[in-house]
Amino acid sequence: MIHSTPRLCAFGNSISSSLTSALGTVALLALGCAGQSIGDTPEPPVTEPPVIERPAIDERQTTTPPDEVPGDLPVYTERDAAEACLQTPEGRRTAATEAGFREMMVGNWLLCATTSVFGTTGDVGLAIYEDFHWAKLARGEGGELHVMGGWEHEGNWESIDTSEMNSPGTYQLNLNIDGSGTVITIPVFAEQPAVVRLNNNGVFVADYARL
Question: What is the pTM assigned to this prediction?
């Protein structure tokens, strides 16, 4: 406990100096000051500033997934895809449900022509993932395929059941491009070979063979 230093109250001139001397300092202190207590004074509480928990600023995480084909789908080699691109597509394979359509769409695809469904020429394929992320494929200096990242090269995708306005088993694929717009297409799957045609409203039409 910290003791406060005694203070004399300020009395008027009516109290003479002789009376002050006679009573003594102790007697005057006993009278007290108006509204004040004499003696021990509790230490004023120390107010600590509130602690604000702020989340750490994480480093930017890339959204580009690994270059892998989902395990539940058959794996086609690049040679298979290249041969499929040379064949004339026949028939049409449709999905009974939207979930089935998504399973048909997920995977890696090799572009069969020079211009992609995006109207670009630097990419050679398309990777579509189960987590509704997609990315363009490019070819490295050694000829290997790799996933591209960044604006214009990746984004997210969604499917829409358009069977009511179109024929049964018709589903729309929207490819939302990071930093840009959206490619809207109704994919057409061939019975043979494993090829899908993506038609961007008649502006860009491109065939992709499954990798």
Answer: 0.64
Per DSSP (E only), the strands in the chain are: 107-111, 125-128, 133-139, 145-147, 154-161, 171-177, 182-185, 188-189, 195-200, 204-210
Cβ atoms of residues 192 and 198 within 8 Å:
no
Query: Which among 84, 74, 177 has a CA at the least distance from the CA of 123?
Result: 177
In whole angstroms, what is the distance from residue 134 CA to residue 165 CA?
27
Task: Quote the CA–CA distance of 148 and 183 in Å, as a whole number.
Answer: 17
pLDDT per residue as tens, the chain (211 positions): 444 444 444 444 443 444 344 444 444 344 444 444 445 555 656 555 444 343 332 232 333 343 443 334 445 688 999 999 999 999 999 999 999 999 999 999 999 999 999 999 999 999 999 999 999 999 988 888 999 999 999 999 999 999 989 888 899 999 999 999 999 999 999 999 999 999 998 899 999 999 9
CATH of 78-210, one of 2.40.128, 1.20.120, 2.60.40, 3.40.390: 2.40.128
